[in-house]
Amino acid sequence: xxxxxRDGPVAVITIDRPDRENAIDQQTATELGEAWDRFDxxxxxxxxxxxxxxxxxxxxxxxxxxxxxxxxxxxxxFTRREVSKPTIAAIEGHCIAGGLEMALWCDLRVxxxxxxxxxxxxxxxxxxxxxxxxxxxxVVGLGRALxxxxxxxxxxxxxxKEWGLVNQIADDPRERAVEMGELIASxxxxxxxxxxxxVYDGLGTAIEQGLAIEGWHGSRSLETAMEGxxxxxxxxxxxxxxxxxx
Length: 246
Description:
Number of domains: 2
CATH class of the largest domain: Alpha Beta
Number of strands: 9
Order of helices and strands: EEHEEEHEEHHEHEHHHH
Distance between the termini: 34 Å
CATH topology of the largest domain: 2-enoyl-CoA Hydratase, Chain A, domain 1
Radius of gyration: 19 Å
Strand content: 15-25%
Low-confidence stretches: none
CATH architecture of the largest domain: Alpha-Beta Complex
Number of helices: 9
Structural class: alpha/beta
Mean pLDDT: 94
Largest sheet: 6 strands, mixed
Shape: globular
CATH superfamily of the largest domain: 2-enoyl-CoA Hydratase, Chain A, domain 1
Helix content: 40-55%
């Protein structure tokens, strides 16, 4: 139901329940939690990609099985936990209900042109309990989040990108997500992780507190910064060399 594959420094976690549009039952939720545990413990995996098989990301909770349990890690197995490394959602087809909440858990999102997003559970009175009410406003803003949550309407990939819900649109989102992961993995990892954590730790704080958080995290990677400065002084990276164009 859930596979874990490594493509160089990128771990790809795939939900594979084709008969249920990759909806999540309890067994799948357990396997997702185990997959993210494996990712966190895998020292050679520097970036994680979450995707769905057979042209669909996920339809969310399996409303036929209705066997999910409220655990400290979240109903879907991992949405209340943190991992220490960057994550990317590679999205095709439906990314709805709990599927949207899983995509929002990731740091970045790449979608196929035909991808569809929405809180379709609104039709059945199923609440958002895997981070959607908290993460969606942080990503797209309060008004747009409330529109999606209260109306349950579908949002296509182009609108999602316009809103900032999607970072990039690609014909093969998994391939593009792996490319992004490889780019991120090519950078000094200590600073990638401290800067990422500073962003999350500073969310919702006053600017003064946020700056203090940033300073503390930054101080943990000063040795890496000094090494990078030495490389620059030696001629590496001049004129923007090595900076991605997209």
